[in-house]
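haha ok so turns out i had the wrong file open the whole time. this is the CORRECT one, sorry everyone. sequence first:
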Amino acid sequence: MKAVRFHEVGGPEVLQHEEIDQPTPGAGQVRLRVAASAFSAADNGMRAGFLPIPVVLPHIPGYDVSGTVDALGDGVDGFAVGDAVIAFLPMATDGGAAEYVIAPADALVEAPTSVPLADAAGFPSVALTARQALFDDGGLEAGQRVLIVGAGGVVGKYAIALAKRAGAYVIATASPRSADAVRAAGADEIIDHTETDVLDVVTEQVDLLLNLAPIEPNAFTALVRLVRDGGVVVSTTAWMAAPDDADRGVKSVVVFVRSDAEKLAELVSLVDSGVLTLEVTRRIPLAELPALHAEAAERPIAGKVIVMP
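then structure:
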């Protein structure tokens, strides 16, 4: 089968599009015929060696995947050959940038039926990140106020929709380019961070500050005063700590997305009911994945890119 993998960490040039043996599922595993995987900045960091997730080389990237069940390992119940599924794969094992991939059966959920199967590969990790940041790590409840910094990306728009569904009041920062999409996601207030200082316009404190943007540490620390006593600061910026304020009981959490098939299945149901909308920016063939990594090394990739074998 064809796969893209790296035999050593380094620049995008270490990625090889090559022929390898088709894997065989072990106990508790399934083999998927891949419909698509999704590119993530984390894939770039793992390939470059600066994201501290241990992998066995050679390694296939692409931990978000969609496909059909092709073979079952021993002890697998609940799935049959031909089932359409999605998964957030363990990041330390081989991913979905290939024609086939091995997945733990307990990571699989039924794919949404309202979108193309390939496009559904762009959903698992970003949707789980939004949900875990708001509720598992942030403890958001109905009637509370949340400020989402950098809400114009995919995670931000999912976070807005999920927070609104939970009965929260949502303040979101966004650039003019993404303001319409943020408004459509349901934000109650939108702050143009290119023209306005957030500290000047948020006059009532929030219960949760969710940061999704690569802001300067001093600017991030200054935002903490917008959080009420006993509130929470949550950030997805894994390369930097999230500030807190122990004197006021404001705690901080950095989100590391976790596999959770039960919650992922609930999120899929929100896609099929229209609460969440899948966003795909580009679709590329597997052979072009090394070029996409090279592009990402020069500038951030906006939206979700779907990689199809």
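The chain has a mean pLDDT of 95.
again sry for the mixup
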